[in-house]
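Project outcomes to date are best conveyed with an example. Our students and postdoctoral researchers have been running inverse folding experiments weekly, and each run begins with a structure described purely in tokens. The record below, which covers 190 residues, was selected by the lab manager from last quarter's runs and is presented without edits.
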């Protein structure tokens, strides 16, 4: 995940949490994500959407665990028809922020933050979890069928006939003609 610990964009400031005075216990936050959130985010993946985000922040002396539950719908463009449509999204995510001497991202789920930091911004994490929940193929619901898995059938080229055939056909394969120079090696194989 990209580091979104500091963000000066006005809309994303709503997602800042003061951690300086927090005791070592669990806290809950609820956010309403609206289209302006995606417009102010430096990205071009998501046009807009509406989401409800429930965040459970667990603070201890060594780390902060952020557990996100995100439900809503995002506006996407269909890869086939180029028509806009709304995709339902429901996802959960975990981000662990460990206290250390400097800010550093260790993995996609674990980052080190300076122990003197007084505030974190969770807008980037919310965006990342929504983006990761999007389907790879964006297909309008009206165009979806059970046959989508077999949409791209492989074609096999037969060098003898010069024709193509579907890979799923169960027709027997024509017997291959072997170059006569390879016959002595074929005998060794037996």
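After processing, the design step wrote out the following sequence:
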């Amino acid at each position: 995940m990209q580091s979104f610990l500091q963000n000066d964009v006005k809309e994303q400031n709503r997602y800042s949490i003061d951690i300086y005075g927090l005791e070592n216990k669990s806290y809950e936050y609820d956010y309403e994500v609206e289209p302006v959130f995606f417009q102010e985010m430096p990205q071009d993946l998501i046009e807009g959407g509406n989401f409800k985000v429930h965040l459970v922040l667990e603070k201890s002396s060594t780390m902060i665990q952020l557990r996100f539950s995100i439900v809503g719908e995002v506006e996407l463009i269909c890869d086939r028809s180029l028509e806009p449509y709304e995709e339902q999204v429901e996802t959960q995510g975990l981000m662990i922020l460990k206290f250390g001497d400097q800010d550093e991202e260790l993995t996609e789920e674990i980052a080190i933050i300076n122990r003197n930091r007084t505030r974190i911004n969770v807008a980037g994490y919310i965006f990342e979890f929504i983006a990761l929940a999007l389907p790879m193929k964006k297909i309008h619901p009206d165009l979806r069928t059970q046959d989508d898995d077999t949409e791209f059938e492989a074609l096999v080229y037969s060098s003898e006939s010069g024709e193509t055939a579907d890979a799923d056909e169960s027709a027997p394969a024509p017997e291959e003609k072997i170059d006569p120079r390879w016959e002595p090696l074929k005998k060794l194989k037996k």
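The first helix runs from residue 35 to 40. The chain is about 15% helix and 35% strand. The training component of this project remains on track.
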